[in-house]
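Quick check before the chapter quiz. The format below is the same one you will see on the exam, so make sure you can read both the input and the output lines.
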Amino acid sequence: MLSGGVVDAIRAEAGNLQYEYFCPLENDSTILLIDRWADQAALDVHHASPMMARIIALREKYDLHMRVERCVSDDAGIPEKDKAFIKESTWRSLGITA
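Here is the expected output.
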């Protein structure tokens, strides 16, 4: 994905906001992918792109298995009771006010 240019190509797609891999400290056989898109339309275009054929081929080649969890931003913002657990500079950097 990285050396073959797939990641860079996905990051360059219109509407891609984030495409990053992470390795859990306690499970070295798992890779977490976080990909964020501007909207559902951008994600739909990505899913219909030739890039998805390359990704699917790599999954099959390396017998990779997926579990997908979809997270949706809460436009209402962070509840007041939760802000106490998050550093103020973090939620302010997201444009959330007190």
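If your answer matched, good. The CA atoms of residues 29 and 36 lie 23 Å apart.
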